[in-house]
Amino acid sequence: MDAIAALRAKYLGQTDQASDADALEAVRLAALGKKGEISLKMRELGRMSPEERQIAGPALNALKSEIDAALRARRAALDDAALEERLKTEWLDVTLPGRPRPMGTIHPISQVMDELTAIFADMGFRVAEGPQIESDWYNFDALNIAPEHPARQEHDTFFMHRAAGDNRPPHVLRTHTSPVQIRAMQAQGAPIRVIAPGRVYRMDMDQTHTPMFHQVEGLAIDRDITMAQLKWTLEEFCRAFFEVDQVELRFRASHFPFTEPSAEVDIRCSWEGGQLKIGEGNDWMEILGSGMVHPHVLRAGGIDPDQWQGFAFGMGIDRIAMLKYGIPDLRAFFESDLRWLRHYGFQALDQPSLPAGLSR
Ligand code: DAH
User: Fold this and answer.
1) Residue 258 CA to ligand 1 centre (angstroms)
2) Top-confidence range, 55-59, 166-170, 226-230
3) Is residue 32 within 8 Å of residue 64, measured between CB atoms?
4) What is the pLDDT of residue 350?
């Protein structure tokens, strides 16, 4: 009996002290392995007298079970501790803000679209969208540009192919964002305040023109909208967009089929020392076309011109992006040159907003 008590104390003690899975396995082999001390003792049972065996057998079996249970318990405790340790070191606070990595960047055109969306959203304008492949009704007729109107030629339109014998008018790649005015009026009715940034296409390619470029359309219709509100809206936009306190706009009488009266808008700027400054100097730069929406256009949008009126404008996004960020060549926008993108691009996680700042 003493021998069994000694074995029990020895192996329970070693089990308790084993500090990892390997040490524990060594204890198991020494006690219960094929050549383990307790296994050898069990083999001796055969040589005992029946009386001795009756006592030693159950005692050895009980010891074997007890040590086996102690080993398992210790293994479980070690596993738990290891897991605990891992959880401590691998802990991750998923509520932390992401770390910006110097990899991809936001293209200046996308950045400018985000910026102007933030500015106009603050003034109550929602973003409206329309298809880039447009019917010629939406692109022209609905905007009061009749089939024989010279504007159809001026727009250098890309026409889509129609199957031989199909005499319907062809679809076009939209030449401006103005058709989105019609779609938005049809979908929402009046009153309405929307902007529509997006791609437009014209068959034109030189230093200052690319066959695809970007515009943003604006439309505000209510019972009593006037040109004064158009002027305020555009001034407010320019101040916020160019991030200067002072801007001065000049409205020049002009003509567009879809507005009456119409005005082209120039912004005061200076080119002194080859450096462009908005809001000072003696130069003017044209940035957009605008006017009061023509009654025919309201009607095409399903809105009664005797009840409602409003203003519209269309602005070239590429142009104002070049002005704001000092980008000298329009064509660079479309070259996908990574070095250019890294230089002029913006961090993906810096979302432009008026409170946080538009550009950083
Ligand atoms: N659609 C015109 C263009 O592409 C720009 C424009 C001028 C849009 C006057 C308007 C506007 O909404 O009122 O040249």
Assistant:
1) 8
2) 226-230
3) yes
4) 75
pTM score: 0.71
Per-residue pLDDT tens over the stretch 115-138 = 999 999 999 999 999 999 999 999
Contact between residue 257 and residue 149 where contact means Cβ atoms under 8 Å apart: yes
DSSP H helices in the chain: 2-17, 21-32, 37-44, 50-89, 108-122, 136-139, 151-154, 179-188, 227-242, 295-300, 317-325, 338-344
User: For residue 119, with 0-12 CB atoms within 10 Å meaning exposed, 13-18 middle and 19 or more buried, which class applies?
Assistant: buried
The residue nearest atom 4 of ligand 1, judged by CA position, is 176
Report the relative pairing of strands 192-201 and 277-278 from DSSP bridges. unpaired
Query: CA angle 40-45-47, nearest 5°?
Result: 105
Each domain of the chain, given as residue ranges in start order, spans 2-89, 108-347
> DSSP letter at 209?
B
Tell me the average pLDDT across 198-210. Answer: 89
Calpha distance 17→23 (Å, rounded): 9
Pocket probe for ligand 1: among 290, 294, 320, the residue whose CB has the most ligand atoms within 8 Å is 290
Amino acid, res. 169: P
130, with CB counted inside 10 A (0-12, 13-18, 19+), is buried
Residue 176 Cβ inside 6 Å of ligand 1? The answer reads yes
Residues 12/67, Cβ–Cβ less than 8 Å: yes
Q: To which residue do tokens 């401590």 refer? A: 88
Please state which of the four CATH numbers 3.40.50.2020, 3.30.930.10, 3.40.190.10, 3.40.50.880 is assigned to the domain occupying 108-347: 3.30.930.10
217 lines ligand 1 (CB under 6 A): yes
Q: Which helix (H) or strand (E) holds 287?
A: strand 283-293
